[in-house]
Specification:
There is one protein chain. By secondary structure, this protein is α+β, with helices and mostly antiparallel strands. Strands 2-3-1-4 form a 4-stranded antiparallel beta sheet, with helices on one face. A hairpin with a 4-residue loop joins strand 2 and strand 3. Helix 1 packs antiparallel against helix 2. It is globular and about 40 Å long. It starts with a strand and ends with a helix. The model has no long low-confidence stretch (mean pLDDT 95).
Length: 99
């Protein structure tokens, strides 16, 4: 199975500049060892099971929550039977069509 999750964790009530606190969530994702990518809006993580990926999301939220009292989470998931590597393959497919 392949599970892709794109999520955004936002600290609430900590001011306008949240980059330092959001970095705590990204640090957790990167330490997980799972394939991941962070862009301006979301962090995407890929794993072999729902439980594996959601554990990383939970830990990322907890890292932000430890720095502020309230957290907003936006999450989108793509769960599919089959092989991994879809995070890269999906982007490559679009790029082929653009070429």
């Amino acid at each position: 199975m392949s599970v892709l999750v794109a999520f955004s964790v936002t600290p609430i009530g900590s001011g306008e500049d949240v980059g330092e606190i959001v970095a705590e969530a990204v640090r957790v994702v990167r330490a997980s060892g799972l394939p991941n990518r962070t862009d301006a809006m979301f962090t995407t993580v890929e794993g072999e099971s729902w439980d594996e990926v959601m554990a990383v999301v939970k830990d990322a939220v907890a890292a932000v929550e430890a720095r502020c009292g309230r957290v907003s989470l936006v999450l989108k998931a793509d769960i599919r039977e089959g092989r991994g590597g879809r995070m890269e393959a999906k982007v490559e497919a679009v790029e082929r069509h653009l070429a």
